[in-house]
What we know:
Layout: E1 8-9, H1 15-20, H2 24-30, E2 32-34, E3 36-40, E4 48-51, H3 52-58, E5 66-69, H4 71-84, E6 93-100, E7 106-113, E8 116-121, H5 134-139, E9 169-173, E10 179-182
Parallel strand pairs: 3-9
Antiparallel strand pairs: 1-5, 2-5, 3-4, 6-7, 7-8, 9-10
Amino acid sequence: FPRYQIGESMVSGMAPLMEELGLVAELDARFQHKSGITLRWGKDPEPWRSDFSAAFSSTGSHFTHAWHVTRSEFDELLLDNARSLGAKVHEAAQVTEVLKDESGRTTGVVYTQGGETHRATARFVVDASGQGRLLTRRLTQTSWQEDLRNVAVWSYFDSYTPLDHKDDILVEAIEGGGWYWFIP
């Protein structure tokens, strides 16, 4: 860490979790706020908006926004936070085997790091490898839902004309199928 990943526009429901992790002040200081989402969807060509502060207040939450984050920085922030809370973090390690108990429950991994082989066991094993799907690839055969085999193309722009709500994400349906999103 850090490693490059395309940016992330966090959903508003992440704010309470970020508060529980003690990261709100850091997120507010480092990343752009996102106060809502503007959509052009369906047959009505007029855009409509979902305001996060209204959605939050309807649930009794004090939040007014989510964040647009730089993934490499956000991922490193999460990793450092986990480490500070007592998680054992092993970087530059390669999992070579998934350990299971007699019932088939995953109980740990065997990994190599620095040329040495190690064994780690835990009550809970979390696969945080993202699209790498480390445990899924080792434990099951992946089956794809054919109608969700989508393709995404992305790019960065140096300038743009902001929407009425300049920090909103824009999501728009495309005639003939598909959609795009724009994250300021």
